[in-house]
Give the backbone structure.
Amino acid sequence: MSKAYLGLGSNIGDSKENIDRAVDMLGSHENIELLKMSSYYETEPVGYKEQDWFLNVVLEIDTTLNPHSLLEFCREIEEKLKRKRIIRWGPRIIDVDILLYEGFKSEEEKLTIPHPRMTERAFVMVPLYEIAPRVKINNKDISQVMKSLAGEEIRKINYEG
Ligand code: GSY
């Protein structure tokens, strides 16, 4: 089993339902165990600004899938939820990104781990810090990395039930 962290985001349609469906699909895979899920966060768009705010969460999982198979499954989930890449950095029904995978680093274009832009993004770092306050990213403590965040807006949401 390897521990991994995934970032999920949506800003089209019912974002909470999109995220919840993706989480259910991950949890239903026989080689994935969901360990922790962060709170939901409403987050200011990073990159292309003329779009709705996102809903983001981070998951901690245990998995026997290797990083490439896990990536394939994440892409399958995006396809199933009918993600359409219309504008680069633009709106999306669901994005499922591998942020970290225990003991694994890669600079392949298709699979860069740790995720190349994660340390600059509050929508990733804040939920990750909530569930993994002692994790290291590129050998740096997350608490150190958090200090250099640019500070885009992010709001924790409390859903009832
Ligand atoms: O890969 C992430 C997709 N995305 C997001 C996102 O999930 N949240 C926010 N706040 N901005 C984003 N920009 C992109 S691209």
